[in-house]
């Protein structure tokens, strides 16, 4: 099965955002990945809901919304209003994760959980059957363009084994340092979806890069 490709608009040219979203609309990408940062949970701020409403209006692809923020459950209505397909929250930011996952599902979105590079896969044991997807961060969240953390490939294998052992239907997504080389190894290890930022928007031909990632 071909991997799902989700270009991250955090790496898009914000001076020509409409043009970059139109490119993604034309491409073979399945989703648009949106990173929301608050400057508290991660040391950076990305964009707020006024910009996201503009993105949602232009995008013809489902929105994969990744909240790198504290108290993400407070924004379930706003994310829902965007028409988001997936709402992704961090394990580390949700002391009451099971409740938040249920609230996301009740709002009509697919619940997903992200784990940071130092968070063990084993901690997902008690939530893995309740989520649509798990996102493994293969860089430290907060900045684009970081070097891929090699241990992430093994984490994908561990997560695939956990999913198979528990009978979960969860997808595995990976975000950070994804390119043709790392993407191939992640897919081989069991990844279902790849978030690509610089690899796509920094390419000479972004649509062709998406096509090549899709072939992995």
Automatic annotation (TrEMBL):
<feature type="binding site">
    <location>
        <position position="66"/>
    </location>
    <ligand>
        <name>substrate</name>
    </ligand>
</feature>
<comment type="similarity">
    <text>Belongs to the ribulose-phosphate 3-epimerase family.</text>
</comment>
<keyword id="KW-0479">Metal-binding</keyword>
<feature type="binding site">
    <location>
        <begin position="175"/>
        <end position="177"/>
    </location>
    <ligand>
        <name>substrate</name>
    </ligand>
</feature>
<protein>
    <recommendedName>
        <fullName>Ribulose-phosphate 3-epimerase</fullName>
        <ecNumber>5.1.3.1</ecNumber>
    </recommendedName>
</protein>
<feature type="binding site">
    <location>
        <position position="66"/>
    </location>
    <ligand>
        <name>a divalent metal cation</name>
    </ligand>
</feature>
<feature type="binding site">
    <location>
        <begin position="142"/>
        <end position="145"/>
    </location>
    <ligand>
        <name>substrate</name>
    </ligand>
</feature>
<comment type="pathway">
    <text>Carbohydrate degradation.</text>
</comment>
<comment type="function">
    <text>Catalyzes the reversible epimerization of D-ribulose 5-phosphate to D-xylulose 5-phosphate.</text>
</comment>
<dbReference type="GO" id="GO:0019323">
    <property type="term" value="P:pentose catabolic process"/>
</dbReference>
<dbReference type="Pfam" id="PF00834">
    <property type="entry name" value="Ribul_P_3_epim"/>
</dbReference>
<dbReference type="InterPro" id="IPR026019">
    <property type="entry name" value="Ribul_P_3_epim"/>
</dbReference>
<keyword id="KW-0170">Cobalt</keyword>
<feature type="binding site">
    <location>
        <position position="177"/>
    </location>
    <ligand>
        <name>substrate</name>
    </ligand>
</feature>
<dbReference type="GO" id="GO:0004750">
    <property type="term" value="F:D-ribulose-phosphate 3-epimerase activity"/>
</dbReference>
<feature type="binding site">
    <location>
        <position position="33"/>
    </location>
    <ligand>
        <name>a divalent metal cation</name>
    </ligand>
</feature>
<dbReference type="GO" id="GO:0046872">
    <property type="term" value="F:metal ion binding"/>
</dbReference>
<feature type="binding site">
    <location>
        <position position="35"/>
    </location>
    <ligand>
        <name>a divalent metal cation</name>
    </ligand>
</feature>
<dbReference type="InterPro" id="IPR013785">
    <property type="entry name" value="Aldolase_TIM"/>
</dbReference>
<feature type="binding site">
    <location>
        <position position="8"/>
    </location>
    <ligand>
        <name>substrate</name>
    </ligand>
</feature>
<dbReference type="InterPro" id="IPR000056">
    <property type="entry name" value="Ribul_P_3_epim-like"/>
</dbReference>
<keyword id="KW-0464">Manganese</keyword>
<feature type="binding site">
    <location>
        <position position="175"/>
    </location>
    <ligand>
        <name>a divalent metal cation</name>
    </ligand>
</feature>
<keyword id="KW-0862">Zinc</keyword>
<feature type="active site" description="Proton acceptor">
    <location>
        <position position="35"/>
    </location>
</feature>
<keyword id="KW-0413">Isomerase</keyword>
<keyword id="KW-0119">Carbohydrate metabolism</keyword>
<dbReference type="GO" id="GO:0006098">
    <property type="term" value="P:pentose-phosphate shunt"/>
</dbReference>
<dbReference type="InterPro" id="IPR011060">
    <property type="entry name" value="RibuloseP-bd_barrel"/>
</dbReference>
<feature type="active site" description="Proton donor">
    <location>
        <position position="175"/>
    </location>
</feature>
